[in-house]
Amino acid sequence: MRLLIITQRVDRTDPILGFFHRWIAAFGGRLSSVTVIGQQVGVHDLQPHVRVHSLGKEAAVPRMLQILRFWKIILLEHGRYDAVFVHMTPVWVLLGWPIWFVFRKRTYLWYEARGGGWVLPIALLLAKKVFGATDYGLPRSSRRRVIVGHGIDTEKFSVGHCDRIVGKFVAVGRVTPVKHYDLLLESLATLPQHCTLRIIGGAFTSRDEREMERLKAQQHDLGLSSRVAFGWESPDAVVIHLQQADAMLHACTGGLDKCVLEAMACGCPVISTSEAARRVLPLSCCARPEELADRIRWLLSLSAEQRRELATDLRQRVVNGHSLQHLIDRLVAEMRC
User: What is the pLDDT of residue 321?
Assistant: First the structure.
């Protein structure tokens, strides 16, 4: 099978979508030909038979010109692919479908997020199958939906050899209200002074900026100025943080965050209030919002042996059900049906 992949960014250094570079490489390891169209293209290192095209967002190309470039590429390259895999951007299903229909290209969508707007329900009708990591991740029902799990690079996200720093907690993801970082700050304020929190994320939209300002004010009011830090990190740096942290704290609502599984693959305990996370975490790592601080204290009280047993269990859960190789095998099999 020859595959065309449409994605937002092709850049292994990107703090949000850098993981997708490994997905592309994994597809390249399974398929004879892979063509990639990225709305924005940065640093990448892929196999010779993986061809990458940019729509020019990194050069501030206007949106209409990006669309025209998209149509040109999918027309000129139509003899190089048999199927199309659109990652997280259903609008490209709508824009490309007339051409793919004429040339009889099977079209597939990956979608794992809330929202989606008016475009998503139309894309769900046009795509042959819609893939998702969990049944929480698609905000609309579809008979074409196929749940395949997340794809975590368990070679990259591994336990590591460094010692964990007692009282170091991390949270991963964009600063936005659905992450409920305010709950994490409230919990931290009740914990011993040596406990710190590194929020690996930042703001993208004006709404995010307002949330950041609110959290900074809360941080000041709770006396946490020296115990909480914000900011994006490179994908490689995130791995190190997860290998060093005492735990990852998670209070996001919605689908199953990939960062939960990445932490688990690193043997880093996750304390979460998320309903979706309950599908993969042991009950001991789950808490209601009002129980979060108490659950963190329980974690701090564990012996070294109990911590090792928990770390082994968490990693094995990801290896068994959410590894990258498992995901790519499943996607290729589903697209060949």
Answer: 87
Question: Domain 2-151+322-336: which CATH class?
Answer: alpha beta
Give the dihedral sign, CA 263/267/273/275.
Answer: positive
Q: Do domains 2-151+322-336 and 168-321 have the same CATH topology?
A: yes
DSSP secondary structure, 241-269, as one string: HHHH-SEEEE---SS--HHHHHHHHTT--
- Positions in the chain whose pLDDT score sits under 70: 114-116, 137, 139, 254
Domain chopping of the chain, boundaries: 2-151+322-336, 168-321
Q: Output the CA–CA distances (angstroms, integers) from residue 297 to 30, 162, 292, 293, in the order listed.
A: 45, 23, 9, 6
The answer to whether residues 255 and 136 touch, using CB atoms and an 8 Å cutoff, is yes
Q: Which fold has domain 168-321?
A: Rossmann fold (3.40.50)
Beta strands per DSSP E along the chain:
2-10, 33-41, 50-54, 83-87, 106-110, 129-132, 145-147, 168-172, 196-200, 228-230, 247-250, 270-272
What single DSSP character describes residue 36?
A: E
Measured CA distances, 86 to 135, 169, 274 (Å)? 19, 35, 27
Could you tell me the two tokens for 248? 């990852």
Q: State residue 115's pLDDT score.
A: 66
